[in-house]
């Protein structure tokens, strides 16, 4: 059974090294799951953090409270980042709050499984691509004039961009677009010493899983992640060191790459 007991806001055991002292990060999807854990880890590493979220105000407040509990500094921005105007707003909000932007983490996600391609509506296709692929590009475009040498862009895609998923056709496609744009941006920005990398998680136990797969599979808590070699899903806290690594200024010769964190579910990249 997937471990549902982990609290993303409890990173008391996380050992920070000050890798992100003096940095300012924007992290989308920061009200739960991976984004929440990464925001707290970044704050413990010394970064000031702005989290973007759409509707989960309670989760956003939990993230901010956890960061403040550890002595960090963070603010929340509510908006639909699938719209370019909202991406411009979060960038301006960050600049007004902290005066700079050094790290952009595009982590917001949405998935709605359908057992037949015939059931994927135009509206669902657009929403999926807006939240995953469009939002990533819009936020990078809005932030880019304010980034400088040594800045980092980190994009959360999915294992499904590489292997596909029969019930997540639109989601897999949107993540594939993220992978292609990440590599293209990396080629364009490498001479400016702005690294663009990503992480492609496998099965990670987050609120999104029960929210989207619960109707299709009432036993999702028992079944989720059991098909990977590790025999279990990952937890968000197991990914955060990779996000810190990709944001670390000392990681200066890696760009256009994806880290595959999936419990041993190997694939060709």
UniProtKB/TrEMBL annotation:
Pfam families: adh_short_C2 (PF13561). GO terms for biological process: bile acid metabolic process. Gene3D superfamilies: NAD(P)-binding Rossmann-like Domain. The keyword Oxidoreductase applies. Signal peptide: none annotated. It comes from the Bacteria. GO terms for molecular function: oxidoreductase activity, acting on CH-OH group of donors. InterPro entries: NAD(P)-bd_dom_sf, SDR_fam. Keywords: Oxidoreductase. Belongs to the short-chain dehydrogenases/reductases (SDR) family. This is NAD(P)-dependent oxidoreductase. The lineage of its organism: Bacteria, Bacillati, Bacillota, Bacilli, Bacillales.
């Amino acid at each position: 059974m997937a471990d549902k007991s982990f609290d993303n806001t409890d990173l008391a055991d996380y050992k920070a090294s000050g890798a992100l002292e003096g940095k300012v990060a924007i992290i989308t999807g920061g009200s739960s799951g991976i984004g929440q854990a990464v925001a707290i880890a970044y704050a413990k590493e010394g970064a000031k953090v702005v989290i973007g979220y759409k509707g989960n105000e309670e989760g956003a407040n939990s993230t901010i409270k956890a960061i403040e509990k550890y002595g960090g500094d963070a603010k929340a921005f509510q908006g639909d980042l699938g719209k370019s105007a909202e991406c411009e707003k979060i960038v301006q909000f960050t600049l007004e709050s902290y005066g700079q932007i050094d790290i952009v983490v595009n982590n917001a996600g949405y998935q709605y499984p359908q057992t037949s391609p015939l059931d994927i509506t135009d509206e669902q296709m657009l929403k999926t691509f807006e939240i995953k692929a469009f939002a990533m590009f819009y936020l990078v475009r809005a932030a880019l004039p304010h980034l400088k040498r040594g800045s980092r862009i980190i994009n959360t895609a999915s294992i499904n961009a590489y292997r596909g998923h029969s019930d997540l056709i639109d989601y897999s496609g949107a993540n594939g677009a993220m992978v292609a744009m990440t590599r293209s941006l990396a080629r364009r920005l490498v001479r400016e010493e702005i690294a663009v990398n990503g992480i492609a998680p496998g099965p990670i136990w987050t609120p999104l899983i029960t929210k989207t797969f619960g109707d299709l599979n009432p036993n999702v808590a028992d079944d989720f992640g059991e098909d990977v070699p590790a025999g279990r899903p990952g937890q968000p806290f197991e990914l955060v060191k990779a996000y810190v690594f990709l944001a670390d200024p000392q990681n200066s010769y890696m760009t256009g790459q994806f880290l595959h964190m999936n419990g041993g579910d190997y694939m060709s990249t």
